[in-house]
Design a protein that fits this description.
The protein is α/β, with parallel strands linked by helices. The protein is built from 19 helices and 37 strands. Strands 6-9-5-12-13-14-25 form a seven-stranded parallel sheet, with helices on both faces. A seven-stranded mixed sheet has the order 17-16-22-18-19-20-21, with helices on both faces. Strands 30-37-36-32-34 form a five-stranded mixed sheet, with no helix packed on it. The longest helix has 18 residues. The protein is globular, with a radius of gyration of 29 Å.
């Protein structure tokens, strides 16, 4: 077709559709039209003229709203449904999409968690939740962060007994009605390494790392409009409990977090008067007496303070979960429905989707040479081999971001960062120092094959911006640590999961977003990933519940979060595990993904006190000395203490691999778990329902009906598990739910044959 034929075709189309303009104008919508710029007819002097003619070919009554050339190639305009269908059929049109109206959120978590569905949830309570204080034990806080703005806050609660400690880069005026307390603890750190070098670290609550500011603002950051990371995820940033107060306890330094400093921080949190304590610090795989985080948390909980901790990032291998004490809310990580795609196109035409947060100048759209750099360790890339080329690197040995630095210093133009089988298909978006796409194992293998077989391998990398509505979501992050509980197999951990992948929150001004010493960039907000990020989500949500129900105990708050969590998507399929691509299990997600709207009104809760936890330790045969350490005074263990009787909202049932009894007889193993429910909702009669496909275990509940006539009323029940022998390592799952009126109180059941 010659240019004149093209012009004649356009004129004909315009003529055919002009007559329908008046009738269709009132029914127009906004559409975004993606164009294939490479097929622009030469008759048009530039792409804008081409866009305009395409639009006018179906409608003379409308104008181009925007012409895009960097975020995409195309334009937006107003069209009727019929006009949009006609336009989509034209040559060069990639897609015609009806505009989606998004609510502006940077972290995305509040909207993803449903916190916009009730005005009460947004503030935490009808009074705003301003009397609830969230403490954060971490690396400190960045003073002056926009997320610490105290506009609209009332006087500091009279119950607050804490203070702001001054020091390097931080003074009393750094605190306000939002950040009401800030302390630092370094005595144990100083004792181990000598006095802190203030050229490297701040002897003050100032956050030199970024982790502490990120977790604190995730939990309770104030609302900040127009927040983004170099244009990624642009919107309004806010923590889970934006009207709660913050108290920061810096106990972590460049070389780690010392147990003595952590305990000192926890002690001050108790005496200062916090209501919730967020501890994104890894515990140890030792008994509760020797785990300082667990021990300190017990004391905190004993004073009525809710404690949430991260589950650790050692997944997907089983039984490597941390912070498993039953008085701690142990939080694993899931994904949001948001992604930051980057696209790889190979010279053979194959395309792969990856992720990246690179925000600099993109590569040209032309294909450039592609080479394999293996692990891309320092000094491993000869400049003459990689200069001006895209280098494919494999994850492992050292940080993802530093690999990009190695490629850039060697003269590389871009990087494809591929997962080996250790990491599978889960990829993390990072703020790389050069154009990068991180891809999963399958894509990485395909790209390596292409490099090895093609005589002249080439590729290009294109950014994809911010994409919302990713499904399925949430997905259990592969790095999120899993059960069974290595310390107490009869307690199911993690307790639940919350958003922990690519979370945008406040950041420090001391280091750049990459964390590299050479990074000169400074940002107000940064992305971070890990169970450290999921933990403060739950801490902030606990603050919302505490504001609405100030009389609830830490155990009641955790129970509300656990029994209302969901473990399946709306279509009924189970939450997916990123590590396997298959449905996750309670050993991966615990009770499920947190649902804060339902958690405010759970109907029934599994309550527990400090004495219940002491009885639990007695059941584990802890020595009288250890019991005294926890109880803080005289406490005599009774003869009937059983781990199975701790009033926990979930069930973990370890079973023997053979059915031979101590007396030599054979038969099924029978285990009884006793529980008690407290009514915190409307009067109702609850009936139990067991969902199980486990043929090897018979489950019965007695009684199977509970009637509550007033709030605060308690009812007990017993679950009996009668199990036959199975092969060692076998795992099976079921669930127990109490249905009463509008309430459903769910508990997962996890069986493991040891």
């Amino acid at each position: 077709m010659n240019p004149m034929e093209v012009v004649m075709m356009v004129v004909t189309v315009v003529f055919c559709y002009c007559g329908a303009v008046a009738d269709q104008k009132h029914n127009q919508k906004t559409y975004i039209v993606h164009m294939d710029k490479s097929v622009k007819p030469s008759v048009f002097s530039d792409h804008l003229q081409w866009y305009a003619n395409c639009m006018k070919s179906v409608s003379e009554s409308t104008n181009m709203l925007y012409a895009y050339d960097y975020v995409m190639h195309g334009f937006s305009t107003r069209l009727s449904v019929e006009e949009a269908k006609q336009l989509e059929q034209q040559h060069g049109i990639l897609s015609v999409q009806e505009e989606v109206i998004y609510k502006l959120h940077t972290t995305r978590s509040p909207e993803f968690l449903g916190l916009q569905s009730r005005g009460m949830i947004v503030s935490g309570s009808k009074s705003g939740g301003g009397d609830v204080i969230v403490g954060v034990v971490d690396t400190g806080v960045w003073p002056g962060s926009k997320s610490l703005d105290d506009t609209g806050f009332g006087p500091i609660p009279v119950s607050w007994k804490g203070e702001c400690e001054s020091g390097t880069g931080f003074n009393v005026s750094s605190c306000n009605k939002k950040l009401i307390g800030a302390r630092y603890f370094s005595i144990a750190y100083d004792a181990a390494y000598g006095p802190i070098d203030e050229k490297l670290e701040s002897m003050s609550p100032v956050d030199d790392d970024g982790h502490g500011t990120h977790t604190a603002t995730t939990a309770a950051g104030s609302m900040v409009t127009g927040a983004s990371f170099f244009g990624f995820a642009k919107g309004t940033a806010r923590g889970m409990a934006p009207h709660a107060r913050l108290a920061v306890y810096k106990a972590c330094w460049a070389a780690g977090c010392h147990g003595s400093d952590i305990l000192a921080a926890m002690e001050k949190a108790i005496t200062d008067g916090v209501h919730v304590l967020s501890v994104s610090i890894g515990g140890t795989l030792s008994d509760y007496t020797n785990d300082f985080v667990a021990f300190g948390a017990f004391k905190v909980v004993s004073h009525g303070i809710f404690v949430a901790s991260s589950a650790d990032n050692n997944g997907p291998e089983p039984s490597n979960i941390a912070n498993v004490a039953p008085w701690i809310a142990t939080v694993g990580a899931g994904t949001l429905d948001r992604d930051f795609p980057a696209y790889v196109t190979l010279g053979n035409g194959k395309k792969f989707r990856g992720v990246s947060l690179y925000s600099g100048k993109p590569l040209s759209r032309t294909l450039i040479p592609l080479v394999f750099g293996d692990l891309c360790t320092p000094d491993s890339l000869p400049p003459e081999k990689v200069a001006g080329k895209i280098v494919m690197c494999e994850r492992g040995v050292f940080s993802r971001l530093r690999k990009g630095k190695v490629v850039k210093e060697a003269g590389g133009a871009g990087m494809i960062l591929a997962n080996p089988d250790t990491f599978g298909e889960e990829v993390t978006a990072d703020p790389h120092v050069l154009p990068t796409a991180a891809v999963g194992e399958r894509a990485g293998d395909a790209i390596k094959r292409y490099i090895s077989l093609d005589n002249n391998p080439t590729a290009r990398i294109a950014p994809g911006g911010t994409q919302l509505g990713i499904q399925p979501s949430p997905v259990v992050a592969s790095f999120s640590s899993r059960g069974p509980n290595p310390i107490t197999p009869a307690i199911l951990k993690p307790d639940l999961i919350a958003p922990g992948v690519n979370i945008l929150a406040g950041w420090t001004g001391k280091v750049g977003p990459t964390g590299l010493a050479e990074d000169p960039q400074r940002v107000e907000f940064n992305f971070d990933t890990g169970t450290s990020m999921s933990c403060p989500h739950v801490s902030g949500l606990a603050a919302l519940i505490k504001a609405a129900h100030p009389e609830w105990s830490p155990a009641a708050i955790r129970s509300a979060l656990m029994t209302t969590a969901y473990s399946s998507y709306k279509n009924g399929e189970g939450l997916r595990d990123a590590a396997t691509g298959r449905p996750s299990t309670p050993f991966d997600h615990g009770s499920g993904h947190v649902d804060p709207v339902r958690a405010l009104d759970p109907g029934l809760v599994y309550d527990a006190s400090a004495n219940d936890y002491i009885s639990f330790l007695c059941a584990l045969n802890y020595s009288s000395t250890s019991i005294k350490m926890f109880a803080g005074g005289k406490f005599t263990c009774g003869k009937k203490n059983r781990v199975e009787d701790l009033n926990y909202p979930s069930f973990a049932v370890p079973l023997p691999t053979d059915s031979i009894k101590d007396n030599g007889s054979s038969g099924p193993t029978v285990v009884k778990y006793r529980r008690s429910l407290t009514n915190v909702g409307n009067p109702a009669t609850y009936k139990v329902s067991i969902s199980s496909k486990v043929s090897a275990v018979n489950i019965t509940v007695e009684p199977d009906k509970l009637t509550f006539v007033k709030q605060g009323e308690k009812k007990a029940y017993t679950v009996t598990f009668s199990a036959t022998s199975m092969q060692s390592g076998t795992k099976s799952f079921a669930s127990l739910a109490w249905y009463g009126g509008k309430y459903v109180v769910n508990s997962p059941i996890a069986f493991s044959w040891m």
